[in-house]
Amino acid sequence: MSDVFREVDEEIRRDKATEFWKKHGTKLVAAALLIVAAVGGWRYYEHRTFQQSAAAGAAFEQAIADAGAGKGDALAALGTLAEQKSGTYPALARFRLATELARTATDDAGLANAVSAFDALSKDQTLPVEWRELAQVRAALLLVDKGPFEEVEKRLGPLSGANQVYRHSAREGIAIAAYSAGRFDKALDALQAIILDSEAPQGLRQRAELLLAVVRSGPVGGKP
Length: 224
Prior knowledge:
Layout: H1 2-68, H2 74-82, H3 88-104, H4 108-122, H5 129-142, H6 149-156, H7 167-180, H8 184-196, H9 202-217
């Protein structure tokens, strides 16, 4: 009897499986094909993305090498790469172009162009926060010698806090700009913040101590 019941159960299961396949088989096949197509599409996307990234990386390295060799078409190559809409290398190309503008600036107009290039990077919300802050620091440091102290402080002040990534550079920039502008109180505050920061690099702390001694001695010849 047990064999009979087992055969009946097996027959019932076969009938149910056949009925299920007739009802849902087409859907299952379609779902399987969709999964295969999705995986294939993703693999193709990954392959294309890798190819584009590799090409952009090669173009960037070549442009940097050409710029170092003084070739005139290097900046044009960087400009072409910078116009691409996404990826790391276009952003790096924009940083290098801004750096080249700063390096070759010979007048106030050239300096302003370099500052504007870094300002544009600092406001680009598609870039990581650290990159935007770095661009903000670079723009401010270009103004340390020639820009008004208030402008330098406005740019570097928010980056000089205790937990800021670029606080060391920001504090040093504020100190130098303040000293140049005769704002010795501001210079003292920035220099003391550097010296008291246990994470400040040794070289920076030594420079801060030297400048602090100069600031405390007062202006030389009645001028800062």
